[in-house]
Specification:
The structure is a single chain. This protein is mainly α. It has a domain of 129 residues: Tetracycline Repressor, domain 2. 75% of the residues lie in helices and 0% in strands. It is flat and about 65 Å long.
Length: 217
């Protein structure tokens, strides 16, 4: 399974095939089917293997702050999606009920349930956090791929965007707020800005959960 994950990380879903995997392993294509019934099964197993990269908080620690544990879970999920860009394309297509994925899901449920919001609150909080992380990480991956295809770094690509804006003075009038925001953020690296945005947005969601919890109490 490690070979499958490595190939998917390097080449993506579009270039991956059972035949290419067999060639990498030095066996015939039919030999692979002794271990899995089809490509779908293999991809689902690969997703679970990628999920093994995610750490989980100690949910047995009753004294732990659920807010910190939510942050840890969200950060681990983002790291996994960025490290394995192909996973985002498979989320929703497969149930992914392998042991590593289920261990992560169980930890997330345990932590979120400690908020005391009931079943509706648990599902709402899970959706808010992990769909946010999924969207954030997917855009992060797409941006990186675009820069790689263009042969420039992420910061160089941002400077190219700034150059286009500078060459269009009418933008400052028509899109004043957008231009000012881009200019204000251009002094920092993309990586720094991305981490700051992720942390702040996550804190906003946690603050919302705290407000809901207070209202319910």
């Amino acid at each position: 399974m490690a070979t499958t994950v490595r190939m998917l990380d390097a080449e993506g879903l579009a270039k991956f095939s059972m035949r290419r995997l067999a060639a990498e392993l030095g066996v015939t294509a039919m030999s692979v089917y002794w271990y899995v019934d089809n490509k779908d099964d293999l991809l689902e197993l690969a997703m679970d293997q990628a999920s093994a990269d995610m750490g989980v908080p100690d949910v047995s620690d009753e004294s732990a702050d659920w807010r910190d544990q939510v942050r840890e879970l969200a950060t681990e999920y983002r790291k996994m999606l960025v490290a394995h860009p192909w996973v985002a394309q498979l989320v929703g297509r497969y149930l992914n009920i392998g042991p590593h994925s289920m261990a992560f899901s169980e930890a997330a449920l345990t932590v979120i349930r400690r908020m005391g919001l009931g079943d509706r609150g648990v599902t709402g909080a899970l959706n808010a956090v992990f769909q946010f992380v999924y969207g954030f990480a997917t855009i992060e991956v797409l941006y990186r791929e675009r820069c790689r295809e263009a042969g420039v770094s992420e910061d160089e690509y941002l400077q190219q965007v700034m150059g286009v804006i500078s060459d269009r003075p009418e933008f400052s009038t028509q899109y004043k707020e957008a231009v000012e925001m881009v200019e204000a953020r251009s002094a920092e690296s993309i990586a720094t800005l991305r981490d700051q945005d992720f942390t702040y947005a996550l804190d906003m969601m946690i603050a919302g959960m705290e407000a809901m919890r207070a209202a319910a109490a």
